[in-house]
Design goal:
2 copies of one chain form a homodimer.
Chain A (H helix, E strand, L loop, with lengths): L20 E10 L4 H12 L2 E7 L12 E8 L2 E7 L14 E8 L2 H11 L2 E2 L4 E2 L8 E6 L5 E5 L11
Parallel strand pairs in A: 1-4, 5-9
Antiparallel strand pairs in A: 1-5, 2-3, 3-4, 6-8, 7-8, 8-9
InterPro entries (chains A, B): At5g48480-like_C (IPR054575), At5g48480-like_N (IPR054576), Glyas_Bleomycin-R_OHBP_Dase (IPR029068), VOC_core (IPR037523)
Pfam family, one (chains A, B): At5g48480-like_N
Protein name (chains A, B): Glyoxalase_2 domain-containing protein
Chain lengths: 164, 164
């Protein structure tokens, strides 16, 4: 069955390309190296279950503790991520170490970011190949007009390195 | 089939009463009265779908616009809430109007809050009958040791007043 070609204009939706998002995960960022403790807290306080964890590649020889790039927790049927703040973190510095980044996953990162910018968001850096928040693949960030940071990435692979 | 009585102690989990959470919804709080615009932005930018909305009861005669207590959006299979900041908002004032509150729903609000406090969270006010974030029923708040605010409430009823 042939699909009729959609004309640009005529509906409000026409300004953005249709992008399917497969997951939305709130990422809680904490001052390094508190992520390990925070994960334990969410397990104890709320019964969250750790389902994946990735650590930052060691960039400084003097670092004793591995920084948590992303610990993935399941809570109330939802996935949340807990991350140590690092230099390349998406968390806004103004929150003093504590912040929430909204991680959206899609196969079409560039189109999703273009749509957000058309709607009024501001790009934070370039889209790049990266490994962030269990994502990997393409990763980009935008700040929306209300101050929230959205990280848009390729769908997460399974996180390795689960210990507890 | 009789359940064996669980002895207190012996496992790390035993310190907290088992509480089942039925939903976790990130609540994005914005400076009033921007919530209406923010909802429109998330619809345009990400294709979010508005599935419910409640407004604050009008408390000041001079208020022209109804404040959004909670607009419920579906995005990537997840529910997010968008709310205007009001006097009784859970959002931390320090973020200057923009913040994220993590809303957890459970039938057992008191036990959930007691568990969180035992684990190291700090109560923010008392548990009360309230109408907040589409919740209704019992509502309480805690701040965790990492600075995040969790609102724990009875499961949300359907939000009325959907316009667009």
């Amino acid at each position: 069955m042939a699909q009729p070609k959609v004309q640009n204009g005529g509906t409000e939706k026409a300004m953005t390309e249709a992008v399917k998002f497969t997951a939305l995960k709130p990422q809680l960022t904490v001052e390094a190296p508190k992520a390990v403790d925070a994960v334990q807290f969410y397990k104890t306080a709320f019964g969250a279950v750790l389902t994946g964890r990735t650590t930052h590649p060691k960039r400084k020889a003097e670092q004793e503790l591995p920084l948590i790039l992303s610990a993935q927790l399941e809570l109330a049927g939802t996935t949340i991520l807990v991350s140590d703040i690092a230099d390349d973190s998406a968390a806004p510095a103004k929150t003093g170490g504590t912040g929430v980044v909204l991680c959206l996953e899609t196969e079409d990162v560039e189109a999703a970011i273009a749509n957000a910018i058309k709607a009024g968001a501001v790009a934070e850096g370039d889209v790049a190949e990266g490994e962030d928040a269990c994502g990997g693949g393409r990763v980009g960030k935008v700040k929306d007009p209300y101050g929230f940071v959205w990280e848009i990435s390729s769908p997460a692979k399974n996180c390795a390195d689960v210990e507890a």
